Amino acid sequence: MTPSQDTDERPRTGKTSTGRLPRSARRNQLLGAAEEVFVAQGYHAAAMDDIAERAGVSKPVLYQHFPGKLELYLALLDKHCDALVEAIRGALEATTDNKLRVQATTEAYFAYVAEESGAFRLVFESDLTNEAPVRERVEAVTRATATLVSKVIAEDTDLPEEEAMLLAVGVCGLCQITARFWLAQGGTIPKDEAVRLVSSLSWRGLKGFPMHGGDGVTH
Question: What 3-state DSSP class applies to 58?
Fold first, then answer.
C-alpha cells in the first residue's frame, strides 16, 4: 500500500462504514479521535494505539496521515488555536460599540472553554510546553488574540501601540483565566452572568482611557 492510499475499516466502536473515505475525511476522523484521547489522557499518556482504536482504523492507516504522535498533536493544536483567533476576530468585528466588543470577546473565551470536547486544554493546559513547536504555537495564539484586541484599543485611544498591546494581553489573560476557573468550579455561576461580571471588570478599566478627541472609550 502506498502512502497516498487509504482504506476504510469497520470501526471498533461498533459503527459500520462502507468503501473508502476521501483522504480529507479520513484525516478529520483521525483528528477527532486523537482529540478525545489527548484531552482525556494528556499527550504523554496517550498512545498511537489508543488513537487508532478510537478511530476504528489500523495503526498503519494512522501513520499514513501523521508520521508520529507529535505531528498529530501539532495538527490539533493548530486547528484549535486558529479557532480561538477566529472567534476573537468575529467578536471584535460584530459591532463598533466598544462595550459590546468587550462583552463579545469575553463571551468568545467562555464559549471556547465551555465546548464539550474540552479541546481548550490542548491550548491552555498542555503537558507538552517543553517542546518548542508546542510552546511556540501557544505563545503565538496569545500574541494573535492580543494583537486583534490591541488594534481596537490603539485605534480608539491616544495610547501608543506598545501600551495598547499590554492592555490587550491583560484583557485576553483575564478572559482566559477566569473562563477556565469558572469551568473548574463546575459553572456554578450561569455562563451569561459570569461573562457579564468579567466583561464589566474589563470595561470599567478600559473606558477610563481617553478616546481620540474625546473623554473616554465610551462607544
Answer: coil
